[in-house]
Amino acid sequence: MNSASSRSRTLKTVGALGMAAAAAVLMTGCGQSSDSATSAATSEAAKVVPQKQTTSPSASAELTEDQQERKKVLDATKVTFDDAATTATGEVAGGKLVDLDLEGVDDDDRESPSPTATGSPTGTASPTGSASPTGTASPTGSASPSASPGAEGPVWVAEVAEKDGTVHTVRINAVDGKVIEARVDADQDADDKKETADRLAHATQTPQQAAKVATEKKKGTVTSVSLDDNEGNGVMWQVDVVGSDWKKTTFDVDAKNDTIIREETDND
Fold this sequence. Notes:
eight-stranded antiparallel β-sheet; alpha+beta
């Protein structure tokens, strides 16, 4: 009797365990099927719904061609306008600076802004660089040099005049500050020299003072300063300043009293 009862309890226990195991297998199978179905649905949805693009355009892609060129040249330039001016005048005994330009920065559009221009692109100075490649003529009557930076890197090109108006061209490496070339301009005549001497005699303010006036109005880097005639009303310094947005603003500064006569921003 006791033996039969013991066998009965054992069979019941084994049966219970078998049922539990079967239930576990069934539940696992259902879970896997559910997970597989969900995964398949997600995969199919991904094929239909396009992925959102999160890549933003680069900063350089937002700059115009002129702005990219200014950035390229100025990033490589280590010698400031002031240092280049000092080096240039030091090459000519008693010389005075009449023009200093950083090659490769807006070489083709150096033209005096319209008297009515106040930053408007409708002024006579073309913001697109469509002005004549000769730009503003130098005090000697010949156009300022305008060439892209060579293998030596960016270059400052200066025109320094003797007391009688004889102009010397001085090229300075804008990276290490060394003089590349210093020579007397060969194409000057007596009238050219007199014009230059007269302009310098009427310019009581230095190019450094004019540059200071311009950069106080707009923070940035001076890339060009040139002594020019103010349409028969005395003389002026024309100063180009490139701001942190890589846009160039040209200031016409009276060479006697340091007041800004005109200004125009090139938005290209």
